[in-house]
Specification:
The chain is globular and about 50 Å long. The protein has four helices and eight strands. The protein is of the alpha+beta class. The longest helix has 15 residues. The N and C termini lie far apart (38 Å).
Length: 190
């Protein structure tokens, strides 16, 4: 049975097989450790029976800084999924859903308005999975994923900012229909 548990620093030495995917963002070790230090309740793994890390989720609680609150793009208090990945051999077994639901519960406990995430426009499998869990596209971030910084926006891929409202958003203020058509630039999002 796969067990959901908090991420531990030594998991950095055991999660490579989950990161060996062209759609998974990889970060330097200090980035992972800063999330572990700041938001330990939102950084979890699922460990398989063999002791391998089969999946992990890395998230945070945030809002736009006070100096940005006057912007039309300012964000209220919410939970954010920074990374969610499942090892290829463990996909389509419900692990992503378990991890996402655990993060959503923490977002509810801390009175967040919604949970959001960014996903590549070309990642149809992930978009469908999130839609099946109640997420919808809020906006398109033009040129968000720039895999080759020397080519600029011309070769960059758009991201969908997908959101799922939490109980605090009773009027669904922070979700919208047709978000794919609502275009913003990377400088507009915080």
């Amino acid at each position: 049975m796969a067990a959901l548990r908090p991420f531990q620093a030594l998991d950095l030495l055991r999660f490579n097989r989950t990161n060996l995917d062209h759609l998974t963002e990889n970060y330097d070790i200090t980035f992972y450790l800063s999330y572990l230090a700041k938001w330990p309740l939102l950084f979890n793994v699922i460990e398989g029976a063999n002791g391998q890390v089969d999946a992990y989720i890395m998230g945070k609680l945030e809002s736009s800084p006070a100096t940005y609150q006057a912007s039309a793009h300012a964000l209220p208090w919410h939970a954010h999924i920074t990374a969610l990945t499942v090892a290829p051999a463990a996909r389509r077994t419900g692990l992503a859903r378990r991890l996402t639901e655990a993060l959503e519960r923490v977002g509810e406990q801390y009175d967040g308005w919604f949970v959001d995430l960014y996903v590549r426009e070309s990642n149809g499998v992930a978009i469908g999975m999130y839609a099946g869990m109640g997420y919808s596209v809020f906006r398109r971030v033009v040129g968000y994923y720039s895999d080759d910084p020397t080519t600029g926006l011309a070769a960059a891929e758009d991201a969908f900012d997908m959101r799922k409202p939490l109980a605090r958003d009773k009027t669904r203020r922070y979700v919208r229909e047709g978000g794919e058509r609502f275009r913003v630039w990377p400088d507009d999002v915080w």
